[in-house]
Amino acid sequence: MNDLIATRDHLSPGGSAALAAELERAVSVAASATCSKAFLTLQKDAAKAASGRAGVRALPLAGLPVSVKDLFDVEGEVTAAGSTVLADAKPTSTDSLAVARLRAAGGTVIGRTNMSEFAFSGVGVNPHHGTPANPADPATPRIPGGSSSGAAVSVAAGAAFIGLGSDTGGSIRIPAALCGIVGFKNTARLTPLHGALPLSTTLDTVCAMTRSVRDAVLAHEILADRRVVLARKPLAQQRFAVARTQMLDGLEPAVAQAFDAALATLRDAGARVDEIALDAIHDLGTIQATGGFAAVESYAWHRQLLASRGIGYDPRVRIRIERGAGIKAWEYLDLVQARAAWIARVEAELQGYDAVLSPTVPMVAPPIAQVAPGAERDEAFFRVNAQLLRNTSVVNMLDGCAISIPCHAPGTLPVGLMLWHGALHDDGLLDTALAAEAKLAAARGE
């Protein structure tokens, strides 16, 4: 493991007894009503297992609890991806590389988390296992966002220090924004997909949710096995872009208000904020008109399973996977080439900017009842799903990196501010996010 950013300063001394107490508290939270339906399996003996590991407190995660999205292989367990059609599959014999790296860093896996079936939704609804409620509103059960729904709830509720998940079109940043936590999507090539069930091999990114940007830096260093270089660049020396095209359309009033307040705070700190058109975003609809990478690449993986067990799929997931059956080889190759040309155009327009600023999603979390499973709610589900994925999916098509940080006022439903850029701008983006997070927290009186 490379030299990692220090994180153990938040842990009180006390050796294995303190570690066991911390893990017992985490498991207790995971088993509570706050995390209802967030975990599909729970390792109730996690504290005992971790306390017996020699030298665990010298490791970067020092035994801290980690939740694992049901997309990743964990030795001795079945990887079902939130579905029932794989429930009788053989348990895996090894950990996925992401899980192995978290364990090697001292992390304690406390359980597998719920998700949108096969990671094909930004809403977080699951008809097989139920939908975990967003902890941000105890009064009204609201969606957690997806597809990494249980991972988000586990972190937001305090059961997990790191929620391991994946991001293909926004599946880390969407739930982070809706639940009021931090979600970092790194440049896809920096983290290994080995042992993760695929949705789109082109767009899938292994990444995580945490409760702070500092913890996101640590999680990325572990998952990517690399050192993040932080320049500590002051906000007064930074230049941001706000993309007008699409990203600001149809914002709910609470999101618009929080986003405008965040921009004002950054400007007050001396940052330069420019509005730019970024008209290339309009072209994504044409580029992906045949169905996009997720449809064709997921169908390639699922086609035999659909033939034998298709009736067991969530109908909302199955219909989108089956769209890939009609995509021709030449259309797929055209898509690959069009994306490469589009990336070059966008990267040229972003030259000179430290980050682009956008609302992560255009809405606060709607009630689960509006989009719960049922044909009578399909129209509402697909409308909400498209809105949630609208801004975040731009970054996946860009092969870029992005982070969502909370920017809402205390006592209001969570709103996420997304900072994003092109490929391999990860370190600079994390550096910027640290500074922005601190300034936004100070403005909220935290």
Automatic annotation (TrEMBL):
Superkingdom of origin: Bacteria
UniProt keyword annotation of Hydrolase present: yes
GO molecular function list: amidase activity
Pfam family, one: Amidase
EC number: 3.5.1.4
InterPro entries per UniProt: Amidase, Amidase_CS, Amidase_dom, AS_sf
Enzyme superclass (EC): hydrolase
Signal peptide segment: none
Entries under Gene3D superfamilies matching the protein: Amidase signature (AS) domain
Domain Amidase: 28-430
Keyword field: Hydrolase
Entry-linked NCBIfam families: PRK07056.1 (NF005460)
Protein name stated in the entry: Amidase
